[in-house]
Amino acid sequence: MKRSGECEIVYNVHKFMKTESEVDIKILLTKVQKRVAEATCVSRRTLCKVLKEGKNVETGVTMAFSTLRKLRPKVCTKSILDNFDEAVLRRIFHNFYLTEKQRPTLKAICESTGYRGSVSSLRLVVRKMGFR
């Protein structure tokens, strides 16, 4: 399915070509759908879905065309580490494991190193580095 603005454009093109076919009797309705699909670069199935939804918009059942998927920006980490900082963090993890003889926790690493970011951003960085 297309976004709501694209659906509206496809529906308006179909309405235009349909009125055009009513003036010129030589063009059949199935040819109108084929022309609209080729002109707007959508499949005929998508065109059928848009037309079905367009009828609901015109009759007042729905207010506007719906968008099935919303694009949400990805969450970026607050602290961006370069290769040197990642190497330091990796060394801290290994030294913590060697000196304390236990698995390091993110909270313990934050407290012992003075990491300025949050635990969740450190978790993302550590996952990206390959630790579990």
Tell me what the structure shows.
The protein is an all-alpha fold and 132 residues long. It folds into 2 domains: 4-59; 83-129. Helices cover 64% and strands 0% of the residues. The model has no long low-confidence stretch (mean pLDDT 80).
Uncertain regions spanning at least 5 consecutive residues: none
Q: What distance lies between the first and last C-alpha atoms, to the nearest angstrom?
A: 38 Å
Tell me how many strands there are: 0
- CA-atom Rg in angstroms: 29 Å
Strand content: under 5%
State the shape. rod-shaped
Report the biggest beta sheet as strand number plus sense, adding barrel if it closes: none
Order of helices and strands: HHHHHH
Rounded average pLDDT = 80
Portion in helices = 55-70%
- Give the helix/strand class: mainly alpha
Number of domains: 2
DSSP summary: helix tally = 6
Quick tags:
132 residues, single chain, mainly alpha
Quick recap:
The chain has helices spanning 4-23, 29-40, 44-59, 83-100, 106-113, 119-129.
